[in-house]
Amino acid sequence: MYSGGLRKWITGRFGKGPAEPDNPESIMIYSASRRTDMPAFFPDELAGRVKRSRKLEAIVFWTKDIRNLARHPDLSRIAVSVPSIVQYTVTGLAGGRWEPHVPPLADQMDALVELASRLPNGAVQWRFDPVIPSPDLLDRFRRMKGRLESALGQLDGVTVSFPDPYRHAVARAAAAGMAWPAVELERKKEIVALLAEEFFPLPPGEPAPIRLCCQPELLELPCVRQAHCIDGALFEKLYALPLGGLPRDDGQRAQCGCTLSTDIGSYDMRCGHGCVYCYARRGEAGT
């Protein structure tokens, strides 16, 4: 099912101590997926792809619904047997106009606690993404952070970005009678600074708490760092896999800091969340 490097890692982690693959650059990281929420809507396909892999060594799950990662009979087993990181998007907008079919965090809490208990601390990474400005923004952030920390322990940061005005997404919002949430640069800086100051008072010398996903215009702020949503260094930290030196994925946007990976999702896999701002909903009726 998995290549020799992973078998050596398993032996090292649970047997005789850390062991390195012969060639770290041969390691394959799966991304599942930037293109659709595979854990939520395509768990069987995702599990099948992993089972058929001969090269897979690590996997990054992207989801707004954690429940299958904890409870799907195959996917839950994969999540704890393959070195895994979860990019978990929670914005507090679930069930509202922007995210009409995303299940609320309250409905996912038991599964989140269950999954977190089986993964290394830090393997579930919070995304407050995108930032949709609203009068209750700080209260919404506070509520979500508090609930997540009740399951995950203290969070040392969060990944954020602001909505990109993709033409089809802007048209979709207009068709729904919603104004696109355009945010001026100075307002972005103000929001990011407020989030860092109020919610992440980290000691001096600690990494900046706000991880920015493709927001180069904000990287001058002292409270931020570039996000590496697929992060070889984090796999190295959490699992002792020697992935920190893997190259950047030059197939992504120029501002993306992700480690090289293979995305196994497809834009043809229709996500059921129905998020109005989503860039991946191309060619759907009304978009």
Essential attributes:
287 residues, alpha/beta, 8 strands, globular
What does this structure look like?
Helix 6 crosses helix 7. It is built from 10 helices and 8 strands. It has 287 residues and is of the alpha/beta class. It starts with a helix and ends in a 24-residue tail after the last strand.
Classify the helix fraction into a percent range.
25-40%
**Overall form:** globular
How many helices? The count is 10
Low-confidence stretches: 1-25
pLDDT average, as an integer? 90
Structural class: alpha/beta
In N-to-C order, the SSE pattern is HEHHEHHEHEHEHHEEHE
Can you summarize this structure?
With 287 residues, this protein is α/β, with parallel strands linked by helices. The chain contains ten helices and eight strands.
Give a topology summary.
Blueprint: H1 4-16, E1 28-32, H2 38-41, H3 43-52, E2 56-63, H4 67-71, H5 75-81, E3 84-89, H6 109-116, E4 124-128, H7 137-152, E5 158-160, H8 167-175, H9 185-199, E6 210-212, E7 224-226, H10 232-239, E8 262-263
Parallel strand pairs: 1-2, 1-8, 2-3, 3-4, 4-5, 5-6, 6-7
Helix pairs in contact: 6-7
